[in-house]
Amino acid sequence: MGVLKAKVHVTLKPGVLDPQGKAVQHSLAALGFGGVEQVRQGKYIEVDLADGSSREQARAALDAMCRQLLANTVIEDYTIDIAE
Amino acid sequence: MGVLKAKVHVTLKPGVLDPQGKAVQHSLAALGFGGVEQVRQGKYIEVDLADGSSREQARAALDAMCRQLLANTVIEDYTIDIAE
Description:
The structure is a homodimer. Helix content of chain A is 33%, strand content 38%. Chain A is of the alpha+beta class. Chain A has a single domain (3-30, 40-82), classed as Phosphoribosylformylglycinamidine synthase subunit PurS (Mth169, Chain: A, 2-Layer Sandwich), CATH 3.30.1280.10. The two termini of chain A are 13 Å apart. The A-B interface holds A 3, 9-11, 21, 24, 27-28, 31, 33-50, 52-53, 61, 64-65, 68-70 and B 3, 9-11, 21, 24, 27-28, 31, 33-50, 52-53, 61, 64-65, 68-70. β2 (36-50) of chain A pairs antiparallel with β2 (36-50) of chain B, so a sheet runs across the interface.
């Protein structure tokens, strides 16, 4: 039994304000890093699934996980990558 | 003037406990998602840099940003990807 490893990225939709990213951007400027035009912060979630289902089933399950728990789809987008 | 877009992933080192990931894993189980063997949660940060420097300079700057602010290198690893 192997494990299906999925990588999920949850990011704020374009246009949604990102105060956390702004705070990081200001902190970088305060530390002397110039030329930082924008910082956007999202979540990166690694999900290991028992390899009992097909990749299509795994993708469907991950899609449901994102919609129900991992992402707030009103303000966030998500992407799912399934590795070997 | 273009913009260099960098994608930074900050993840907990292997072996470091991830209570946030555990909470997500338990919530997924409570929602009825079976077969989730592990969840690890990290940060995903998009940094846009003014395109006045070479990719090597940008990578060096991003490496310094990670060490000084974005990651806690005692417990976290980071990766830097620079797009066009």
